[in-house]
């Protein structure tokens, strides 16, 4: 912006002699010149104050502490220790120092149980194979109970409902302990060898076909045992017990585990996910995964 001075004003007067200016006009021009000069001085002063305030707000960043490797022979653990030590302040060392509790603490019952297999059986099973351990924990008594309840449920089902002539239920034959063991052996095998469908385990396809299941039992026999597999008597079961269907086998397995094995002091009890689409009052359904938490 061009600033008018008194010299400029005189030049204007000389150049404008042809114009007729009164004293009031000259006084108005002088006031205009003065106001313009004052406004410029105020703008310059505000610019200086703004630059000073910006300089005061500038913060110099702190210098970061860096890991300094002293020598090539220094181990990785020493490097990590040096890095942690360099980045922990004195206040952190004081606040993270371990100390004994001062207030009244709850009494902790000492753990005096001997954990692991009972001595009577640990000596016998010292060099046993996994099958011997399985037979010890899942005894023949459990299999006899499953055989009894499965045969009973198959008989009750055939008598209580009208079975179609083409139904496989007419081909049902009572099972025994050896067949039930083979049945559960196939279930364990299917947990290791995963296939999309149950029928694929007996398929003769060159890619999906499996030779082992056919040597154990036929597909029809496996499916009909799976259909009538049962662990309790429906007529004598306690209706108020929500897990009455599996209550007998749970009690038997718990008694067997307590008899042969004692857990350690620290135990982690975690939830398990079981694919299940039926109705159960104890479940917590996850709709996204279609899996119920039991």
Brief account:
The chain has 294 residues and is mostly helical. It contains 11 helices and 5 strands. Mean pLDDT is 76; it is low at 11-15.
Write down the Rg: 46 Å
Q: How many beta-strand elements? A: 5
Inertia-based shape: elongated
Compute the separation of the termini in Å. 83 Å
Describe this structure as you would to a colleague.
This protein is mostly helical and 294 residues long. Among the domains are: 1-43, no CATH class; 130-268, no CATH class. Helices cover 48% and strands 4% of the residues. It has eleven helices and five strands, in the order ααααβαααααααββββ. The strands form two sheets. A three-stranded antiparallel beta sheet has the order 3-5-4, with no helix packed on it. It has a two-stranded antiparallel sheet with strand order 1-2. A hairpin with a 4-residue loop joins β4 and β5 (291-293). The longest helix has 35 residues, at 23-57. Mean pLDDT is 76; it is low at 11-15.
What is the element layout, followed by pairings?
Blueprint: H1 6-15, H2 23-57, H3 76-87, H4 90-95, E1 116-117, H5 119-122, H6 130-137, H7 140-160, H8 177-192, H9 212-216, H10 219-228, H11 247-260, E2 261-262, E3 273-274, E4 284-286, E5 291-293
Antiparallel strand pairs: 1-2, 3-5, 4-5
